[in-house]
Design brief:
There is one protein chain. By secondary structure, this protein is mostly beta strands. About 0% of the residues lie in helices and about 50% in strands. The chain has no helices and eleven strands. The chain has strands at about 1-5, 10, 15-25, 30-40, 45-50, 55-60, 65-70, 75-80, 90-100, 110-115, 115-120. The radius of gyration is 13 Å and the shape is globular.
């Protein structure tokens, strides 16, 4: 499956941003979808995940209550709504697809990755 992330940008702390990730090439509902982020010199870290039917989500503690992951299976798209953004949320955000079992935080479980979109939050 090919993944194309978009929606990143620059904004001030406290603002909101919505990331999108469009999937193509394979049946979207076969995949658990996740968002990860990475800053220079650090490992890619888990942000949020959603199961195939959108009935289950999971978040990193650092974003819980501020970020919301959702998916539109009719449009083969997963979203990440980010509110109350902080400077520490600055990173390249990646969407990923996992065709296996529910292991949302396990980076190696994800089979496909998008190209990333930059989010920069200034103080």
């Amino acid at each position: 499956v090919q993944l194309q992330a978009s929606g990143g940008g620059w904004l001030q702390a406290g603002g909101s941003l919505r990331l999108s990730c469009a999937a193509s090439g394979r049946t979207f509902t076969n995949y658990i979808m996740g968002w990860f982020r990475q800053t220079p010199g650090k490992e890619r870290e888990f942000v949020a995940a959603i199961n195939r039917s959108a009935s289950r989500t999971y978040y990193a503690d650092s974003v819980k209550g501020r970020f919301t992951i959702s998916r539109d299976n009719a449009k083969n798209t997963v979203f990440l709504q980010m509110n109350s953004l902080k400077p520490e949320d600055t990173a390249v955000y990646y969407c990923a697809a996992d065709g296996g079992t529910w292991r949302p935080t396990t980076r190696d479980a994800y089979d496909y990755w998008g190209q990333g979109t930059q989010v920069t939050v200034s103080s």
